[in-house]
């Protein structure tokens, strides 16, 4: 009988087994290919693409965030403005309360800190691409820092926000600084709770609160943003301290969310945000760009008349237009005013930017400081006043530069709220305080050596800032009452809170020159310095956190009304 070896049996069976495996694998692969093609081509394809690529263009703005409370109507939100105006005019100041420790609390409520966005280093190629445009803009739009000749006098305490520390900060200021502050300012009863999620009360007052020390750090650095104007690049210019970058604004009754660039771009998907005004408006616009730069490097699409930065991921445009006074200006001779002197037609808006407003979804207006510069005031086709110009002493001025500012605010706001085709949101940022202590910008005023927010006992009253703010609020309120279109108008009232930020200016650190003078001379005179514009990063970034929150509230309010 022939015997069969055990080793010989598998040799005949093995090829059949291999064929079966190959056929199975091939069939499975074919099935997966067909299934994937069907999934991507069907309506759920956007979900699949979003999963693989992190992009879903089908999302609409109503899926960005949820509303905690509906935003108040225009008249309701303007009510605090009227109250501010009334209190200022009566000389009462703002209605704030002191606790036993000397801190000031207006209202109450708990707030929470949010997490820092990851920083992304800008693309070096885009840096080079933007540099020539930036240099040309600085050459064309370079301006001096105009200020009033009214000196500042120390008048004791003022009811407003006080700086406080968040407990447990490892990078807080020195022990001596902390001791000095804690002696004068009691710890906040509404200390920040990092364990809680970020909660925002959509109806709370954003503009009364306190400055608290936040060791998380700024939203960007001077090295991660290539478009900072050199005069505001305080760290790049050698400023030795950095604590001024770490103070955050804490409203009394809620929390101001930390700016998240990606969320903001999504909020502004397909929309345009325009900053219109003077060099302080440029300061704020550059701050906004630096924050957004950490999420995406924009494309520069600007020209000499208008800066335009395009964020491709959400088709968002950030624009800036230069307008020193926001009203119509000419240099031609007018009546007894010769050629060469700027004439301001206080009852006519600046047509340079008015022709573009229908293209803007959000406008942030900034003005005021140029009313200290030489100009002629024309109202109803008549010369009614002038600043640093009035050749005929026998003629009596009808208005001064402060009254002229108030009229200009009413003019431009009225033009926006009565324009039949404008439906956007306008945010009027209130007068930005300067901190030239001991004199004006050209008479020895200084902010040298300020390294933290002022205490009440250190606050220096600025009469010019106070009256300019009062006139601005009055002009705003008068104009809003004339509203006839569907646009929205908000006053972003930062003047009082930022009067405490004397530490946030470049001071003598205006250039990278290693030989610049940064200390007072033997005679006590301070070096040349800038106490008007704001360091970047620095307190100015808070303005854009406020802008973001105002926009978020408004857009969510519109969604609620529509639904």
UniProtKB/TrEMBL annotation:
This chain's protein is named Protein trichome birefringence-like 18
Positions with biased composition (Polar residues): 85-96, 122-133, 147-160
The record's section on PANTHER family has: PROTEIN TRICHOME BIREFRINGENCE-LIKE 18, PROTEIN TRICHOME BIREFRINGENCE-LIKE 9-RELATED
Region called Disordered, residue ranges: 85-200, 499-525
Q: Family assignment?
A: Belongs to the PC-esterase family. TBL subfamily.
Q: Name one GO cellular component term.
A: membrane
Every copy of the Trichome birefringence-like C-terminal domain together lies at 256-549
* Biased amino acid composition, Basic and acidic residues: 134-146
The membrane-spanning stretches of this chain are 20-40
Domain Trichome birefringence-like N-terminal positions: 203-255
Give the UniProt keywords, A-Z. Answer: Membrane, Signal-anchor, Transmembrane, Transmembrane helix
Species of origin? Forsythia ovata
């Amino acid at each position: 009988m022939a015997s069969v070896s055990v080793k010989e049996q598998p040799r005949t069976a093995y090829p059949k087994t291999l064929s079966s495996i190959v056929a199975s694998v091939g069939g499975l692969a074919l099935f997966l290919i067909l299934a994937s093609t069907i999934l991507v081509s069907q309506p759920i394809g956007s979900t699949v693409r979003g999963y693989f690529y992190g992009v879903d263009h089908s999302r609409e703005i109503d899926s960005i965030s949820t509303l905690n409370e509906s935003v108040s109507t225009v008249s309701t939100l303007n009510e605090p403005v009227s109250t501010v105006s009334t209190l200022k005019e009566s000389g009462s100041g703002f209605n704030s309360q002191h606790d036993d420790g000397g801190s000031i609390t207006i209202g109450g409520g708990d707030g929470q800190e949010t997490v820092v966005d990851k920083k992304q280093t800008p693309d070096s190629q885009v840096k080079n691409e933007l540099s020539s445009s930036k240099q040309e803009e600085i050459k064309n739009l370079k301006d001096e820092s105009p200020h009033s000749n009214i000196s500042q006098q120390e008048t004791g305490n003022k009811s407003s926000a006080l700086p406080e520390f968040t407990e447990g900060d490892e990078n807080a200021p020195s022990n001596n600084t902390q001791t000095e502050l804690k002696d004068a300012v009691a710890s906040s009863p509404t200390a920040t709770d990092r364990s809680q999620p970020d909660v925002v009360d959509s109806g709370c007052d954003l503009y009364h609160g306190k400055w608290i020390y936040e060791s998380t750090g700024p939203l960007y650095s001077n090295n991660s943003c290539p478009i900072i104007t050199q005069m505001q690049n305080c760290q790049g210019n050698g400023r030795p301290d950095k604590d001024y970058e770490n103070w955050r604004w804490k409203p009394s009754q809620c929390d101001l969310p930390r700016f998240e660039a990606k969320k903001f771009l999504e909020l502004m998907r397909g929309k345009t945000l325009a900053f219109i005004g003077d060099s302080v408006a440029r300061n704020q616009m550059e701050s906004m760009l630096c924050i957004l730069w950490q999420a995406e490097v924009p494309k520069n699409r600007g020209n000499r008349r208008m800066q335009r930065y395009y964020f491709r991921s959400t088709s968002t445009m950030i624009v800036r237009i230069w307008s020193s006074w926001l009203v119509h200006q000419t240099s031609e001779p007018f009546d007894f005013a010769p050629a060469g002197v700027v004439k301001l037609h206080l009852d006519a808006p600046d047509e340079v930017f008015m022709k573009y407003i229908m293209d803007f979804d959000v406008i942030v207006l900034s003005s005021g400081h140029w009313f200290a510069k030489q100009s002629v005031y024309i109202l109803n086709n008549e010369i009614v006043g002038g600043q640093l110009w009035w050749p005929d002493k026998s003629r009596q001025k009808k208005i001064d530069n402060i009254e002229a500012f108030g009229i200009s605010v009413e003019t431009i706001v009225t033009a926006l709220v009565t324009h039949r085709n404008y439906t956007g949101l306008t945010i009027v940022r209130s007068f930005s305080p300067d901190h030239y202590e001991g004199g004006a910008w050209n008479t020895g005023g200084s902010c040298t050596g300020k390294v933290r927010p002022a205490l009440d006992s250190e606050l220096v009253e600025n009469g010019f800032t106070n009256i300019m703010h009062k006139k601005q609020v009055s002009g705003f309120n008068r104009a809003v009452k004339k509203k006839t279109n569907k646009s929205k108008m908000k006053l972003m009232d930062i003047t009082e809170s930022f009067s405490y930020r004397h530490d946030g200016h470049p001071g003598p650190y205006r250039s990278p020159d290693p030989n610049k003078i940064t200390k007072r001379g033997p005679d006590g005179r301070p070096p040349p310095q800038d106490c008007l514009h704001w360091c970047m990063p620095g307190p100015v970034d808070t303005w854009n956190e406020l802008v973001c929150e105002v926009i978020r509230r408004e857009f969510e309010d519109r969604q609620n009304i529509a639904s």
